[in-house]
Amino acid sequence: MVIKKEKRLSEYIFLVSYGVILPILITGLIRLIYSSVGIYINTKLHMENNLPKIVGELFESVNRKTLLMIFQCFQKFKDTLYKLEIISYTAPEKIDNFIEQEYENKYSENFLELNYYFINASGIIYKTNYEKDLGLDLSKFFLFWETLNKNLDESNYYLQPLAKESSTGKLRVYAYKRMKNGDILELGFTLKPKLLGEEFSVIKDLSPFLEQISILQNSEPISPIFKNPSGETIRKYSFESLYKYDEYIWKQIEIDNLPVNFYIYFRLNFFKLFLIPLQTLILSILIVFAYFVLIKYVSKRISGEIKKMEMAMSEKFKGNEYERSFIREVNDALEFFSKQNEHIQELSKEVREAFYDFAFKLVYVVEGLEEGTAKHLERVRFIVEKIAERLVEDKDLREDIVYFAPLHDIGKIFVPAEILNKPDKLTQEEWEEMKKHTVYAERLLDHPRFKVALNIAKYHHENYDGSGYSEGLKGEEIPIEARIVKIADVYDALVSERPYKRAYSKEEALKIIFEGDERVKPKHFDPKVLEAFREIVDEI
Fold first, then answer.
1. Which residues does 316 contact at the CB level (< 8 Å), separation at least 6?
2. Among 95, 231, 314, 469, which is least packed by CB within 10 angstroms?
3. Given 3-state DSSP classes, what are the helix, strand and coil percentages for the chain, each rounded to the nearest 5?
């Protein structure tokens, strides 16, 4: 009888191990590898196809801001030109000192240098602090020389906002004045690289896998925020080429009808992306091994105790001595089962931590989906933790909500990259596809242990008044974990910049949540969650 029970127990353990646990681990690993490869391909295509367009738009944005700044400075330019002409007549030996003082007092914030030029009626530069241009005949540039004289004939001053210096390719600003003797006085300004750096710094956060990026003009970075490419190319078919990728892209745009050429160099490093499946595989092997060892040990001990109990029961009616022996055996068995329960609890804890670890690695996958996602996930998790501490008494549920909150958009893995990263407003068809990410989450989170994670991913766009998607749930029908993540996700979306909207300030975002606007209404949120959020706003 004992042998049969041992055999049944062994068969049960074999069935659970090979029929349930191994398929779950293998399926999860295959999905993770599939997702990693998809992210790798989508990231490469996104950078190759969209990066030149993004850089071109940034150049145009810099151009608009630069022009505004230059026109605001035009009155200063005229004042400097007027004073410089007077000094050229009264104290020509002080011209260089005057230019240095003007630069320090008026122009050092936005310009790198200030040069002056005296040009005679024939177009020859006969005096300048830019020795390279001394003696240059501007009349040889016929169209420029004709346009300059025509404008100075109409007005005593002329501003050339952005001009390309032929020898260096740099964009400069020039201001001109016709002197009383008929000569032309010119000021030349070189824009500070910081004006470009402040605008272009955003492209360094385009992808969590972006290791290096540089924008070059004439083989030099356009701003100190960029470095020259290392020069070490990634060798084809090398081990490094498995997870690294680099590319040079040439681009030409026009700014105020001037052609501007530049190169974009970028290098992607997917090492941490492909490290996740490897770590998961190793962790899975260790879990399975530890599970088998522990189960085998528990099975052996339980079988032994069952045998002892049956022997004790067979002797039960032989006398008081056997009755006492039977009681002792039962007590010993109960004590043993109590200890085994502790072992099983410990095993349950290890499995729980393994799921948390797997969820943490899935977060890396989510970070690769959209620009700026990593910081968004950190902020959402922080807000969720603060609210859960106030509303969720069950410790295990509270831990699950906090750990799984960053997976709320995991379903976006299955949404096409061109929709996820589209800079313009989505069409109705694209929006319907985007909304399906809540349903797609079930493809990854269908294991019972991921129930809380699935509830978050599937229902965090449901509204308390029933107006949300994807199932139109209402009130308490929506799991508490989804209601908590919803308000954290909405708040962080409001304070984050998107291609189609600016980032709201904290005060603006709070006003929208508590008072509402055309899209967000207070009735969308659980009143208890809304009140808990109100209590933590100072900690955000």
1. 322, 323, 326
2. 231
3. 65, 15, 20
